[in-house]
Amino acid sequence: MASSMRILFNGRVLGIFMLWLLLNGSFSFAVESDINCLKSIKASLEDPSDILSFSWDFSNATEGFICSFLGIECWHPFENRVLNIKLADLGLKGQFPRGVANCTSLTGLDLSSNNLSGSIPVDVDHLIPYITSLDLSSNSFSGQIPTNISNCTFLNVLKLDHNKFSGQIPPQLGQLSRIKTFNVTNNRLSGPVPNFTSTNNTIGPDSYANNPGLCGFSGKICKKGKMTN
């Protein structure tokens, strides 16, 4: 009887120990991943004013140290797990930073009012799968808006205004059921606008202004791929 109890006790202790290892191993991986995320972003962007170079100091390495970085909000101040990245109006140059994929718990990304260029990666849904707010406005991004943004199903805010995007707006974006704010003003877009199914949004004609080729809103009727008034 005593032997059986001892085996049962040891089995429970081993189970608890294995669970502890699993949880702490996953936590350590997440922490390391988020640190690498910010290192990659810093390395991939030009920082003419050395703002990130001054603020993002990776030599500290104390618990939660990245949470004090400029523009970084963490889930918990003592945990290196990034919630939001807000790097607006810093004069940054370069392309969309693919390193954000390593911030595996990221829900908000604001790179607005910089000098970023190039296209949005076609696999953006794999880079920021849990994003709720994406603001790339007032940059020089170009090319087409990738269809796969529609797979970022948690999106509430998508701001792509004041860029150089061209082509059609993917109609699949209309399936973003959580979307509240959508803005593509001042681009080079054409064709019909999406038919958003979300009922809790503020998407109106002002969201599409200064795209002469767009139709399907504000009395601009789309007919056989052409716009008519």
From TrEMBL:
- Signal peptide: which range, if any? 1-30
**Where are the membrane-spanning stretches?**
none
Q: One Pfam family from the UniProt entry?
A: LRR_1
Places the protein is found: Membrane; Secreted, Cell wall
| Leucine-rich repeat-containing N-terminal plant-type domain boundaries | 32-75
Cellular component aspect of the GO annotation: membrane
The protein, known as: Leucine-rich repeat-containing N-terminal plant-type domain-containing protein
Which organism is the protein's source? Rubus argutus (Southern blackberry)
